């Protein structure tokens, strides 16, 4: 039982480490899960991170356990990999992303992890008493480090993003995968039925504002699914500290429902939009989104979701102002 608990904690640590590595490696072509389908992918780099990352972690953990003579935890150490994959799959369903992930790629990655880790355990880990390197014969390790270094340098593919909110830059209009299109339209239909009338009253029946806010809800729910929002509501009852809550992720120092967050968020954004009407004629909707979250990638994600929605509406000509902003935003990017 103790060994199982240790293995579970090791798997959770691996999960967090892999996520951290992924976030730090995004500019090098690492595929970070998003509703935008970036084409700047380095497939070999992704394979190394996602497949060999857990295996390297497993070897390091075995070496540490051997060093501290905790051999009782080495039995069935491969369970760490099994638990890690299980955590990954559970997370996909908790975040409601089962319909939009690339299951073929996931199966390929996880099958590779299981196959290679099984071979490593049976042929290497289980037959070696001490995995720590022998520094008296370090030349092979040095050459290995050189190869890894050259690989990293050769595989570096940075994405160039503008520093300013609307600075012209070389990038692209991302591709929209069918599975993600279905996800966006399904969520749009659901949130329109649930929140449209609430938003419509506050926006004075401005369908362009309504659709933009629905797009924000889709993206916020994508990153903060119901289970996470439930945890946040429980947490604020304990901490009493201000945090972002609800499906629209608005700041509050008390627990609020998803509907309350939509009301608060819509009131704030509509107020900002009316102010923007006097200040800007070309970026009112983008400035409204920026008021909710100033991150450039966030603005692009919301506009991209909005474009997907409008492109599939029969009355898309009623969205001329919003669509012109979307076109202006993505015209700054070179389509590949």
Automatic annotation (TrEMBL):
Transmembrane segments: 6-22, 43-67, 73-95, 107-126
Keywords on record: Membrane, Transmembrane, Transmembrane helix
Species per Swiss-Prot/TrEMBL record: Bacteroides ovatus
Name of the protein in its database record: Uncharacterized protein
């Amino acid at each position: 039982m103790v060994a199982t608990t240790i293995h579970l904690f090791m798997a959770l640590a691996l999960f967090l480490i892999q996520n951290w590595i992924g976030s730090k490696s995004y500019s090098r072509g690492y595929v970070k899960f998003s509703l935008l389908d970036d084409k700047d992918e380095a497939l070999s780099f992704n394979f190394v991170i996602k497949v060999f990352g857990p295996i390297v972690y497993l070897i390091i953990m075995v070496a540490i356990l051997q060093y501290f003579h905790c051999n009782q935890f080495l039995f069935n150490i491969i369970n760490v990999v099994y638990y890690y994959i299980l955590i990954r799959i559970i997370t996909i369903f908790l975040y409601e992303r089962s319909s939009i992930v690339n299951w073929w790629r996931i199966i390929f990655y996880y099958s590779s992890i299981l196959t290679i880790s099984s071979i490593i355990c049976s042929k290497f880990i289980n037959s070696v008493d001490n995995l720590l390197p022998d520094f008296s014969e370090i030349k092979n390790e040095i050459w290995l480090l050189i190869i890894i270094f050259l690989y990293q340098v050769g595989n570096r593919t940075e994405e160039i993003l503008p520093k300013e909110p609307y600075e012209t830059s070389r990038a692209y209009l991302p591709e929209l995968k069918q599975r993600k299109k279905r996800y966006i339209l399904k969520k749009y239909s659901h949130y329109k039925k649930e929140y449209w009338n609430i938003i419509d009253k506050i926006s004075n029946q401005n369908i362009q504002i309504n659709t933009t806010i629905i797009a924000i809800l889709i993206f916020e729910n994508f990153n903060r699914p119901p289970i996470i929002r439930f945890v946040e509501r429980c947490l604020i009852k304990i901490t009493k500290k201000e945090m972002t809550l609800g499906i629209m992720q608005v700041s509050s120092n008390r627990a609020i429902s998803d509907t309350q967050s939509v009301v608060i968020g819509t009131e704030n954004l509509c107020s900002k939009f009316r102010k923007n009407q006097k200040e800007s004629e070309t970026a009112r909707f983008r400035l409204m989104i920026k008021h909710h979250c100033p991150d450039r990638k966030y603005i692009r994600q919301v506009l991209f979701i909005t474009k997907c929605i409008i492109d599939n509406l029969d009355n898309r000509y009623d969205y001329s102002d919003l669509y012109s902003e979307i076109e202006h935003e993505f015209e700054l990017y070179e389509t590949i």
